[in-house]
Amino acid sequence: MFTCMSQIYQDYKLGINSGYAKWETFPIWNLPINHPINIAYEAATSDLGDKNMFDLRHKKEYGIDSVNYNRDIENFDLLKKIINEFVPKENYMHSYKSPTDMGINHAKDGIIDDLVVQEAAKQEILRRYYFFSKRAQEGAVNKNTVKRMKELLKKANIELE
To answer: Counting beta carbons within 10 angstroms of the beta carbon of residue 13, is it exposed (0 to 12), middle (13 to 18) or buried (19 or more)?
Structure first.
């Protein structure tokens, strides 16, 4: 996000009115927070500490539940302050009322069989658990990542055999 903001600032100094939006897939903002796909996103980024959260600003502004991740939610106030400092008033970035507004994501529209998608997401969560467990044994990943993965397995109702 802030790499993009740095470029927008450089553009501003050159008189270019550029902006920032995110093409992203996960988490899927309009699926439930505990949908296996959104849990699989947390599993894929468990070594980074990403967590899905409700975007309360989006709910307040639009009356719609929305899922986003902790870094976007935590950085949103700072982003708005930066936008107000130098981004021209006519720039679309001033329309952002929530972190979810920054993203472009229509992934839910592509789901035609939710049960198949849920099962695939659960398989991905399992793969990530085994991957991070092995990496932790090698000393390449913090053991807290494996602890987090066990929490995600439980959250997704997945039992290890």
So the answer is: exposed
pLDDT band at 4 (very low <50, low <70, confident <90, very high): confident
Q: What is the pLDDT of residue 38?
A: 98
In a domain, 161, yes or no: no
CATH (domain of 13): 1.20.1570.10
Q: What percentage of the chain reaches a pLDDT higher than 70?
A: 100
Q: Which H, E and C letters describe 115-129, residue by residue?
A: HHHHHHHHHHHHHHH
Token reading at 135: 């990496």
Overall domain count for the chain = 1
Rounded (to 5) percent helix, strand, coil in the chain: 60, 5, 35
